[in-house]
Give the backbone structure.
Amino acid sequence: MTKMKASFIGIVRPQPEDLWPTLEKIAAIGYKATENAWSYCNTPGASFEDNLKHLKDIGLEPVDVAAFNGEDLKTRGAHAIIENAHKLGVDKATMFHGAAYYAKGGKVVTYDEVMEEIEMLQNVAAECKKEGVKFAYHNHDHEFTTYFNGMTVFDMLLAYAPDLWLELDVGWVTYAGYDPVKLLDRVKDRVALMHFKDYLPDSPVKHTVPMLDRTLTKTYDMPNFCSLGSGVLKVHDCLKKCAEIGIDVINVEQDFNHVLDPLEILQVDYLVMKESGLVE
């Protein structure tokens, strides 16, 4: 069985002058890829192409390109997503925040709004498919806790957007009350990308996060995120299932720090994954 590669998104937010030394440290830990590649390649001081070469020379391969949310995707369209994917040399793209996410800030999410977004996602996914790009949806917890006509938003996405892939976040799946291993087995043919994050059993905690819509509440209940293996996530079981269904990259993410600093988080996450024997 081929071992999976360790990748990361977020966690570190270095100043421009510290970017490349920080990335070198992360690569030295053992990481082979990053979902932050698009932003790194657009760092001022060098061309996109030179930054991409620098990133690869360090030992970090790009994973995907992304749209922030539905409004971002609607504004840019499938063409921009495909163009960016080809420019970065990747075959995957992601939308990070769907309509259901904004229920976190107190927004009333309607059936029509969700269905309109799903139609857009299907159209983008179909266009991306023609160009060899897998377009994926990143879940949070509200896709599993928001229902319309007895159906979760998550299952609506699967049913009504047949060309849409998933970037399955097993931390949020767990927080929503689902068994991530069983879910992975159920949706294994639709998973293009993975997010691994863990949280402490004393969740939830109040946390402030940015919202594009200023009318929404910014402080609300969130999981008390922690490094992999320190919380409730079935890390090894999830890794084993990912290996079984052919996932090649595991992206770790921690939305906010608990005790460890960013490089310590990345060190712990990597060692926990490597100890499984399933990650390079």
